[in-house]
Recover the amino acids of this structure.
């Protein structure tokens, strides 16, 4: 079993959409869903990060651009359509180590022609605008004319599967017979963003060019070139398709001139050189991100899938884009950015690819204008980050959606899920703590911390009777409960956000006083505000059980119908219990970790006993209807000693998409679950956390079948390699490192090797 | 067995293209292939007669316009795609008597929803721009939201099945949310002809409107409206789709304004009223065209199919269009007009619908400018009608095609198949003989006869040695032999053309001397020319066998390898014999009737013995690789007493498309075979012919199983009804009629009834 490969051995067109998501190739700049060229079924997707458009859709969404994958094989007059053929063999394989998607099959057409096709496709990590495919085609029982069609399809829409919401976000502007190749430019409806796809075919064998005739055609929104060739039984022909994808979102010169130049450069470099460079970069990335699990092949492949897709979704070169909830892998959640990025994915990047982490946080800084606008339009001050953000940071959460029964329901998250503000503040502090990136904290980080604190200052309500600050009518992470008062996750993190704002403003005052003054002036803050902040921090209301051991998720939660989960499905996931006449929101059932989530994010703030009580209480009531939930419970479970469920939740998290256990992989990657998977391994099984003194701690526990677990992290500019086996822990560091292992303190000096017996 | 219906009981998407041809609905103005709305497979076709465009195709061709049939049913988020469903029942039925296409099926979707759909569709013969469909939809095992999508698809191309020739002939100009309904306008590339499709849905049940929400969308080249409704298990909902199709080829006002007005008028009239009027017109047409065959259900249905499709292909209201070789039923032969019209189809119209016959001949008159241009550009004089004609009468035969093995071959028919000129002359004389339409012969007919004769004058070559006129390097009806000299069919009909020109010029001189003089002046003719014509008529070379009994198809034909046909396939059609090392053109094998064709067209010019010898000689050598051939051999066979083969050939002719016996029904109707079918019945079994004195003769012979044969014809403004049974022949006439039956002369006076024992 190759532990780097995701394979599909049996073709069923009904699964095409799922595998398009799983086999997406992306480089952070763009993503191409893993569509099969030889089937018209599924939901092709080609996205460039940051290209959004609203048109007549409810809210702005990532644009599904013109499809450049178009490739047809015609055996004389018969098109090789895999859905019309008998398949003698079929295999698709994503080589995650190399970032290459392989497809091969033997198809027998209705007319009895048997043909073998082997393809590989990659989206370059070397040059982000390049992608390519290679086809090896062999007639197995005939000699004859074969036509190869290369086309770019501009008839693409978003939400193609949904007749009432299907939306076309662009107009096809130009078709080009571009010699070599073909090109098609589109322009988005609202902001006139142009995107160009340019592709061409090269066919060669031992005696050179194999193409006889070429025909260029324009069919409205589709541009095509067809090459005639002659193929001989048993002899393979190799065709390379070169692709260039560019947009004037990031490139300000003439698109077509630039595209043709880039295509020629690509062809001059050649397919083999480009793919080699691409593989070298992936090797380098794997060296940073891989988690090696010995003794558990399923876990090994599963965790790698999540690491691969996370790494594919991000691009350090653009600070105006972030990672959508569904990555660059589909149109679910409309390409919007949620707390998923900072709370679930960011830790992975902070510890493995800090330059990416910084770019993601820079996206928040660069959309502060939108966040301030959000605060203003909703009657508050400072910066209110959008629950769902797109290109400008404005709130773009849809106001309406459908419930489990398909009925229209008002969506309140954009109005009430305020905790996104603290989540971003959390990401900044986490990033700075691990990287010591002063330049960022001084120039961007503190500004965000102060402006989000300023928002909270305007948002909290002072309760005179109780002499406390409250936040009413919110939604916490658990979205089953809307319009609740004093959700602890929200209140606690608001308080924490203010605490950090106060800390860093004091720090900045000393570190860079001019900067400090400029910032206060820019944000309209002075000592009076800071005094209020202190008060809020001290008097924020945190509801708890009478004995103080169980945090009450929100005020009044304990008074709700206490329906416990007692049955589990074949995947060990909760089955909806009987509500006993209550509506869902009238019960204590949770969609996902909420109090538990808080305890994972701020582990040093809660005693082990408190964690244990809360874990046990809420775990019994959590339905895991969000893919964000299982990984979190695995972490908290391990922290409090529930090792049995931890592995189950870990496997659930890493197989979210591979086993489609939320039933919606069709619509894109569960990127937060991928981030949660990394956290579950590192924060959970390894038990990595930073204590109040800023010292790294590990406290590993491995499931019985795991022979070993090893990985690398970045910690304050050192690269730390940790390898855990049954009997020992080995640590290497490129810099001096202070590390607690099982609560015992170790000092590792530069490039020294530490071995600790387990 | 309903003898008016063509049925399909089993669905197989592979046959969709064939049934699209068979189920085409046309009214002469336009044709819509019988595509199934619920399948994406096949080759949709929507043609308006006379809209041609070349663009990048080899020659100008009839334009496959935007598709107005678009209709989708979505059960919640699941589209009813018949190719993805399990079918519990399926039936399509063309009711030829009413001109209505019925489709019904019960489909079970992948998600297990069972739905019954019953549709009817008609293209109005009442108002040519109207068409409509009615859907009755019943959920069989669910209640729920159903979305109904009405759309017009402008992403249509010609030759969609052929990757190297696929061509888009128009640009989508405008999409309209037209309240009611949607509209899409296209404009052809070359001549900027605009065509508009306008459609809307109405859904009503006992309590009125059933639609809840409507969504209008534009997707590039596609415009759509979706209606949301709620359907209940076991309850049927009826949705009517109204359509208007117009073009500025024939309508000079603002298309969209006119279209919306017409749609409103149509909806005011209502579906039920329009379909009733449509049926009444079809009843009237059937009263003119039907051939009733008692005792042979297969023959009865088969002949009616041909009559239905012929009548559907013609429109008396437009004198600038003719009937294409493939009708309005497909893109085969690119919508071009051949000799098929005058020689094969015209007799049907002359004798049943003479106003249509006149319109078809007027098309030739109205394209004389093109015919004169053809003569000029090829170095001749007068009018040279195009072997393949489109909108302007210019020669549009492709110069290149593919042979049986798929190799590119030069097509010479446009250069050498001169006989089209005499074929048109033949049509004019036949028309006049049967109708006495003096107005036509004076104003248009003679002009064509003279100008085609003038062409022949410039085309013939005088052989001094033999003192005879010859025509070298031609192709006759048998296209296996190219560049032949003195093809008798060509020479004989050229001579005949000249003879008729001389006759009618003399006639016109007396009838209308001013017209005569004007015509001579216009065409540049005088007595010197007429003297030359006389000489050509007298001295035209007609090669024959030494005993004079067998006409030699062309000079040297008897010297070719004499390969006879000895084996027949399961359909009793010839199997290619061994060529014994010769190329096809080096053998005496024929593609189709050639000498035999001549003898059918001019039966009075050849003795029965000569016909018999020639029939026997050529029948043995004819491969029937043209659908034009079997019907002709049935006629000649009956004339010479070969009754066995006659029935076989008749059935072959009438089932050309129904049994797809040429293997290319996918591409459209074999309209000439349809005309040949009528001729085979009337000229063959009835033995109807006009003798030299202009007297109508019948000489019926019926196959054993036929209990009777009855039909109507028009003869010199009388309507003649003839009914033949086993023992007698009954004749009715609305006017005085002289008629020979079995060579015995009868006079039938006005409205009298004649019965003759057999």
């Amino acid at each position: 079993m190759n532990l780097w490969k995701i394979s599909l051995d049996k073709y069923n067109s009904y699964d095409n959409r799922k595998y398009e998501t799983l086999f997406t190739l992306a480089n952070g700049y763009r993503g191409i869903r893993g569509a099969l060229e030889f089937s018209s079924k599924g939901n092709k997707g080609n996205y460039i990060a940051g290209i959004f458009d609203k048109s007549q859709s409810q809210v702005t969404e990532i644009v599904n651009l013109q499809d450049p994958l178009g490739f047809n094989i015609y055996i004389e007059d018969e098109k090789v359509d895999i859905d019309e053929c008998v398949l003698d063999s079929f295999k698709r394989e994503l080589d995650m180590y190399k970032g290459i998607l392989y497809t091969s099959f033997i198809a027998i057409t209705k007319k009895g022609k048997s043909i073998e096709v082997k393809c590989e496709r990659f989206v370059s990590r070397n040059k982000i605008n390049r992608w390519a495919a290679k086809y090896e085609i062999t007639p197995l029982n005939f000699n004859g004319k074969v036509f190869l069609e290369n086309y770019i399809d501009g008839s693409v829409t978003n939400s193609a599967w949904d007749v009432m919401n299907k939306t076309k976000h662009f107009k096809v502007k130009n078709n080009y017979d571009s010699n070599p190749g073909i090109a098609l430019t589109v322009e988005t409806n609202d902001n006139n963003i142009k995107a160009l796809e340019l592709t061409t075919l090269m066919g060669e064998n031992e005696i050179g060019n194999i193409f006889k005739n070429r025909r260029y055609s324009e069919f409205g929104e589709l541009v095509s070139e067809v090459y005639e060739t002659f193929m001989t039984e048993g002899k393979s022909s190799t065709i390379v398709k070169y692709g260039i994808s560019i947009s004037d979102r990031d490139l300000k010169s003439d698109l077509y001139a630039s595209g043709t130049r880039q295509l020629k450069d690509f062809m001059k470099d050649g397919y083999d050189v480009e793919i080699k460079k691409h593989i070298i970069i992936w090797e380098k990335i794997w060296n940073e991100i891989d988690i090696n699990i010995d003794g558990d092949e399923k876990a090994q492949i599963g965790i790698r899938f999540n690491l691969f897709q996370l790494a594919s979704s991000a691009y350090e070169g653009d600070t105006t884009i972030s990672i959508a909830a569904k990555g660059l892998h589909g149109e679910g959640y409309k390409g919007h950015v949620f707390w998923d990025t900072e709370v679930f994915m960011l830790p992975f990047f902070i510890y493995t690819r800090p330059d990416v982490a910084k770019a993601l946080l820079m996206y928040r800084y660069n959309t502060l204008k939108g966040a301030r606008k959000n605060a203003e339009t909703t009657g508050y001050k400072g910066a209110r980050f959008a629950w769902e953000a797109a290109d400008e940071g404005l709130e773009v959460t849809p106001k309406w959606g459908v419930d489990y029964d398909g009925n229209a329901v008002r969506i309140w998250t954009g109005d009430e899920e305020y905790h996104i503000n603290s989540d971003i503040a959390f990401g900044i502090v986490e990033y700075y703590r691990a990287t010591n990136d002063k330049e960022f904290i001084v120039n961007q980080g503190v500004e965000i911390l102060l402006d989000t604190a300023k928002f909270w200052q305007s948002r909290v309500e002072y309760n005179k009777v109780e002499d406390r600050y409250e936040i009413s009518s919110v939604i916490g992470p658990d979205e089953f409960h809307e319009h609740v008062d004093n959700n602890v996750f929200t209140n606690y993190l608001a308080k924490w956000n203010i605490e950090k704002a106060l800390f860093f403003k004091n720090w900045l005052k000393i570190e860079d006083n001019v900067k400090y003054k400029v910032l206060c002036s820019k944000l309209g803050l002075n000592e009076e505000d800071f005094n209020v902040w202190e008060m809020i921090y001290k008097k924020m209301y945190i509801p708890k059980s009478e004995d103080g051991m169980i945090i009450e998720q929100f005020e009044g939660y304990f008074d709700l119908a206490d329906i416990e989960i007692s049955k589990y499905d074949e995947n060990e996931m909760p089955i909806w219990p009987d509500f006993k006449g209550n509506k869902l929101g009238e019960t204590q059932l949770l969609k996902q970790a909420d109090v538990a989530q808080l305890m994972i994010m701020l582990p040093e703030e809660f005693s082990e006993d408190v964690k244990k009580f809360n874990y046990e209480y809420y775990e019994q009531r959590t339905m895991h209807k969000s893919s964000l939930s299982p990984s979190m419970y695995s972490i908290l479970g391990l922290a409090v000693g529930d090792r049995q469920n931890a592995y189950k939740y870990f496997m659930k998290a890493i197989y979210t998409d591979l086993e489609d256990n939320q039933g919606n992989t069709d619509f894109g990657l569960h990127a937060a679950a991928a981030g949660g998977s990394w956290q579950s391994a590192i924060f959970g099984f390894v038990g990595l956390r930073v204590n109040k003194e800023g010292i790294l701690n590990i406290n590993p526990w491995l499931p019985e079948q795991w022979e070993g677990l090893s990985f690398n992290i970045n910690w304050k500019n050192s690269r730390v390699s940790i390898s855990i086996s049954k009997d020992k822990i080995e640590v290497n560091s490129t810099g001096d490192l202070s590390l607690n292992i099982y609560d015992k303190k170790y000092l590792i000096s530069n490039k020294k090797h530490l071995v600790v017996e387990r």
